[in-house]
């Protein structure tokens, strides 16, 4: 394993990006946009929040939003047992406008059948997997969120920070 990590060291650094693909969030234009108010963040958590937001900006996962925006969701902070925080966005209002795509999902029985006779298995951990897919620009406005630092939107789908409720 160490030899493989040395040989392909570039893929073990940072967050990779899927090239030549942008995710589209389909919006029902009959649903009126909702701009919610900022929620207060406890003073004791503001420094940790600021560090997390700066990290998301640095990693190009979010971008500042200038000017008016029709959709605005509040940020919520969840304390972790480790003392760190999880940034969540309350996307319930935005989700009312997202049109679901329907895809058939393979059953475990089908997967097991296809694996019959296999002798080599591997496991991949795509850390921050959704961070590797960019959202097309016109779909980003529904991911806009607000906190005491200002208004930002996601450039990528985000399950780590509880954007998992957004339906792609």
Describe the structure.
There is one protein chain. The protein is of the alpha/beta class and 168 residues long. The protein has 4 helices and 7 strands; from the N terminus they run H-E-H-E-E-E-H-H-E-E-E. Strand 6 and strand 7 (150-154) form a beta hairpin. The chain is globular, with a radius of gyration of 19 Å. The relative contact order is 0.26.
Summarize the structure.
By secondary structure, the chain is an alpha/beta fold. The chain has helices at residues 2-7, 43-58, 92-95, 108-115; strands at 22-23, 62-64, 73-79, 85-89, 134-135, 145-147, 150-154. A hairpin with a 2-residue loop joins strand 6 and strand 7.
Features:
168 residues; alpha/beta; two-stranded parallel ribbon; 7 strands; 20% helix; disordered C terminus
Pattern of helices and strands: HEHEEEHHEEE
Radius of gyration: 19 Å
Strand content: 15-25%
**Order of the strands making up the biggest sheet:** 2-7-6-3-4
Supply the number of helical segments. 4
Largest sheet: 5 strands, mixed
Report the end-to-end length measured between terminal Cα atoms: 34 Å
Shape: globular
The count of strands amounts to 7
**Roughly what is the average pLDDT, rounded to an integer?**
85
Quaternary organization: single chain
Helix content: 10-25%
User: By helix and strand content, what is the structural category?
Assistant: alpha/beta
- Which regions are unreliable across 5 or more consecutive residues at pLDDT < 50? 159-168
Ordered list of secondary-structure elements with their pairings:
Elements: H1 2-7, E1 22-23, H2 43-58, E2 62-64, E3 73-79, E4 85-89, H3 92-95, H4 108-115, E5 134-135, E6 145-147, E7 150-154
Parallel strand pairs: 1-5, 3-6
Antiparallel strand pairs: 2-7, 3-4, 6-7
């Amino acid at each position: 394993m160490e030899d493989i990590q040395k040989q392909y060291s570039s893929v073990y650094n940072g967050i990779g990006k899927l090239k030549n693909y942008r995710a589209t969030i389909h919006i029902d234009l009959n649903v009126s946009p909702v701009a919610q108010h900022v929620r207060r963040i406890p003073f004791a958590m503001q420094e940790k929040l600021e560090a997390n937001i700066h990290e998301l900006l640095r990693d190009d996962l979010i971008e500042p939003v200038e000017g008016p925006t029709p959709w605005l969701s509040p940020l919520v902070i969840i304390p972790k047992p480790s003392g760190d925080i999880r940034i969540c966005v309350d996307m319930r209002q935005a989700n009312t406008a997202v049109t679901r795509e329907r895809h058939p999902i393979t059953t475990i029985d089908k997967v097991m059948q296809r694996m019959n006779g296999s002798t080599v298995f591997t496991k991949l951990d795509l850390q921050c997997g959704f961070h590797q897919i960019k959202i097309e620009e016109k779909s980003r406005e529904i991911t806009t969120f607000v906190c005491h630092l200002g208004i930002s939107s996601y450039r990528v789908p985000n399950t780590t920070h509880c954007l998992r409720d957004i339906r792609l």
